[in-house]
Input
Amino acid sequence: MTVTDLPASSTRLELPPLKLGNITVPTPVVLAPMAGITNTAFRRLCREYGGGLYVSEMVTSRALVERTPESLRIIKHDDDEKVRSVQLYGVDPATVGKAVRMLVEEDRADHIDLNFGCPVAKVTRKGGGAALPWKTALFTAIVRTAVREAGRGNIPLTIKMRKGIDDDHLTYLEAGRIARDSGVAAVALHGRTASQFYSGQADWSAIARLRESLPDIPVLGNGDIWSAEDAIRMVRETGVDGVVIGRGCQGRPWLFGDLMAAFEGSESRHKPGLAEVSDSVYRHAQLLIDTFGDEDKALRDIRKHMAWYFKGYVVGGELRAKLSTVPTLEVLRSLLDQLDRDAAYPGPDAEGPRGRAGTPKRTALPDGWLNERALSPAQQAVIGAAELDVSGG
Output
């Protein structure tokens, strides 16, 4: 597919279903795994609005192999999730291989994604996430091992990555070719470096270059998609086979309805009034209680979503403060009942960027990490510590 093959309308786009091995995703949209966000509760909300592939929160391979309760919770899926998608993070080929083997042998996933894009210091400082593709042999070994193990169950394996560590240490084209040659089903690129974090603008031209360099497998684009129109524009400018949605859906699970409409050629867009937003917040809290089995934990979790849900809507400062510290489902109900349920959709004020962008900063790396592409003995010892017994990031 080339950009010139696409229709001229700025609000409509017809794109073929996304093929990932033996899986067909009719709407070529992927929910990006986000720590503390894309649990079963949020995935269900998004699925109720539109189609796509909904990936769980990132789980570390060591935690999964050691069967920590939190890792097993993270990979749990609702019975009606048609494609059980899990994202793994790891730095040791053997441990990643064991984690993939566990998912395959115990029938816990239908699709597996590997994380090579995390920019968080606790991960990159140990050589993981977005720092890892710089070490070519290590990256190759992890991807090949994971593909081999996933293949035993005919499960497609994909990777998600960034452009590189910084503008002087870009890895995405080489990593994409290595992944393709290793047998991955698709490659997703976030058009930022690790040092950018989420600041500035995503470099869609890099996504286009990756698409051009990998004509024989699906390439997905990620970064700065805040609306269906953004997704359409990304496909036109880059030629990608699908889009990955991260922060754009925070507080806006209905974005997946907009995306499905756009990819089906409809100009219909979801514009919820305050009543519908209120109902979504309450349902989200109820689903979180089901997810955690603990009302206190669920209500602590829903608090971080409040600013995202009510961005642009008229909600008094005192009420916003109370919502951000809501202690129980009963109190949440009483606070939501104070909203003006007749208030209409506020338009552009409710759209656009959301979540913390951070600021550009030097990526935390192991000593001497950028000196050469191969691992030194000291780095080999240090990198094992990146197999943190935690998840997320």
Residues 1-9, 389-393 have pLDDT under 50 and may be disordered. The two ends are 34 Å apart (CA to CA).
